[in-house]
Amino acid sequence: MPLEPLSQKDIEERLAELPGWSLDGDRIARSYRLGSHFAAAALVVHIAQVQDELDHHSDLSLGYHSVSLTVNTHSVGGAVTEKDFELARRVEELASGHGAS
Ligand SMILES: C[C@H](O)[C@H](O)[C@H]1CNC2=NC(N)=NC(=O)C2=N1
């Protein structure tokens, strides 16, 4: 099925199931805290691996003890789609395995 922009209501319903995620303009976003810079870097690499697997890529940044990402879907002109939430759910699983909060 082709990707379509989600309505505001659809976005809010999905965000309600993803604590820590929020709408930032036309993107969904989350930041994580980790116990060290190296732990944060490892999470970035793991997220990059999943993004290539899904062929869907966030803007992903590494801080001192933090990782931040924002994502929308370029192919529909930069709107939020189901694919962004698929990535967000996968990242949540990963982050928990890395001890991120
Ligand atoms: C050709 C390739 O499949 C596309 O460019 C993919 C790659 N990653 C992507 N990532 C995001 N966030 N949106 C896209 O539309 C997108 N498209």
From TrEMBL:
Domain of life: Bacteria
One example GO MF annotation: 4-alpha-hydroxytetrahydrobiopterin dehydratase activity
Record's keyword terms, sorted: Lyase
Known EC number: 4.2.1.96
KW Transcription regulation (keyword) present: no
Catalytic activity as recorded in UniProt: (4aS,6R)-4a-hydroxy-L-erythro-5,6,7,8-tetrahydrobiopterin = (6R)-L-erythro-6,7-dihydrobiopterin + H2O
Entry's family note: Belongs to the pterin-4-alpha-carbinolamine dehydratase family.
Name of the protein described by the UniProt record: Putative pterin-4-alpha-carbinolamine dehydratase
Organism taxonomic ancestry: Bacteria, Bacillati, Actinomycetota, Actinomycetes, Kitasatosporales
